[in-house]
Write a structure and sequence with these properties.
This protein has about 475 residues and is α+β, with helices and mostly antiparallel strands. Helices cover about 45% and strands about 15% of the residues. The strands form four sheets. A five-stranded antiparallel sheet has the order 2-8-9-7-6, with helices on both faces. Helix 6 runs parallel beside helix 8. Bound molecules: adenosine monophosphate and magnesium ion. Magnesium ion binds next to loops.
Amino acid sequence: MIFNFDNSYLSLPAELFAECKPTAVSRPQVVAFNTSLASSLGIQIDAENEAELVEIFSGNNLPKGAANIAQAYSGHQFGHFTRLGDGRAVLLGEQLTPTGERFDLQFKGSGVTPYSRRGDGRATLSAMLREYIISEAMHALHIPTSRSLAVVATDEPVYREQIQMGAVLTRVAASHIRVGTFEHVARFCSHETLAAFTNYVIKRHYPELTASENPALALLEKVMNQQIDLMVNWMRVGFIHGVMNTDNMTISGETIDYGPCAFMNAYNPETVFSSIDTGGRYAFGNQPQIALWNLTRLAESLVPLIDVDTNIAVQKAEKLLNTFQSIFEQKYIEMLARKIGIYNFETNDALLINELLNWMYLNNADYTNTFVKLMYPDSISDKIFEHESFLAWKNKWTVRLNKDEKGDFSALEIMQQNNPVYIPRNQQVEKVLSDVTETGQLASLNTISMLLSNPYTTTNFDKKAMEAPAQAIEQVYKTYCGT
Ligand code: AMP
Ligand code: MG
C-alpha cells in the first residue's frame, strides 16, 4: 500500500505533540473499508492483499512515512477547562492527495498515549461503526465533516458498562486542530509558540489570510463564519452533536468527534439525546449559542496576537463576535426558506416559516418527514398531515410559492437540494450495530450505507428507511452514550 505522507505537524514545537505508536492488537478483522475515499485520497491499495489492509488499519504495521504522534490540546468540557490531548488517537500521517489537498489520517481507539490519563485508549466496535455510518452520512448530506476510511475490529475486550468488542477507526479530516488546541497553546506555551502555531494554522487552512492586516483577527472571523455555516447545516438536517466542548470544535469548520450525537426525529429545539448532557447545554436549538461561546474561547486565546494592547485586542474581538448573532439568524432563516422552496426570501416569510416550526412542535411532527411530505405528497402516510391546521398552512404556503418569480430552479428542486429523504435514524443505526456486533452480519450495514450515500434521492423511496420512530422508542435512545 502506498501513501503520500508529508507530516507538517512535526515541524511545530515539540510540546504540541507526543511521539507514540498504536498498541498492537490481536486477530484484527476489517469490518468496513471506504474504497472510494481511499481512492480520492490517492492511497494505492493492492486489492488482492487483504492481509496488508488489516495490518495497516489495525495499527499493527505502520506504513513508510507515518507520523506516529498524539496531539496535545485542552478544552472546556461542559464549561470547565481541562487539559486533554489525544488519549486514544494517533496521527498516522498527513496524506497529500493527487489534487494537492492535505488530510490527516488518524487512528481512533489505537491504545494508550501519553495523554490517556486513566483511559484505556480503546474504542468499542459499536461506537466506531456508528461514527463510520454517521460521518459518511453527513458527508453525503454535503456537510463538512471528518470522514471514515476504515473500521477494523480487534480481539481485545473493551470494558465499558459491559465487555464489548474493540475496534480501530481510521478517520480523515482536513486537520484535527481544535478550538481547544488554541486554548492549550495560549495557556501553556510561550507567546512565540502561539504566534508560530497560529501562523501554521493560517497557512494550512486559510492561506489567503496570510497577507491580511491582522491575520489573527482574520482567522477568528473566518472560523466564526465557518462555524455559522456549520450550525446552519446541522440545523437544516436536524443534527445534534451532543458534546460541543471546545475540544470537539475544529478550526477547519468540519464536524468531528462523533460521540453521543443523533438526528432529531420530532421537531423540538430542546431535544437532547446524550445521557451525559443532563442540563441540556448541547440541545438541538442551543447549538448556535454554544458555537458562539466556543468562539469566544478561541478569541480569548488569540488576544495576544490581535493587538499588543490587550484592551484594544478585546475590543476588536468583541466587535467581531457581536456580529455572530445577526449573521447566523439571517443564514438560518434563509436556509429554512429553502427548505420550503422559497428562493427569494422576504422578511415576511419568517412568519410562514415559524408557523410551520410551531405546528411541528405542537404536533410532535417528524422534522425530516414534514419536509418530505411537502415535496412528495404521496410519500408519507401520517394522519397528522391531514389535520386542518396543516392543510391551512399548506394553503398559505402554496399562495406564497405561486408569487415567487421563476428562478434557475423550481421550488421543488430547491427543496430537493436541501431536504434529505434519508437520515441515519437511531433505531435503524442501532439495529445495524447489533447485527454486526452480535451476529457478524454485514448485510444491513451495507444496505444502510448505500441508502445514506444518496440522502437527497428523488425516486423509488424505501418507505421502511423513512419511518420515524414512535415517541416511546425515542425515549430509549436518550440513554445512549458509551463510546
Ligand atoms: P471526547 O469526549 O471523545 O471528545 O474525549 C475527551 C477526551 O477524553 C479526549 O482527550 C480523549 O482523547 C479522551 N478519551 C476519551 N475516551 C478515552 C479512552 N477510552 N481512553 C483514553 N482517553 C480517552
Ligand atoms: Mg473529543
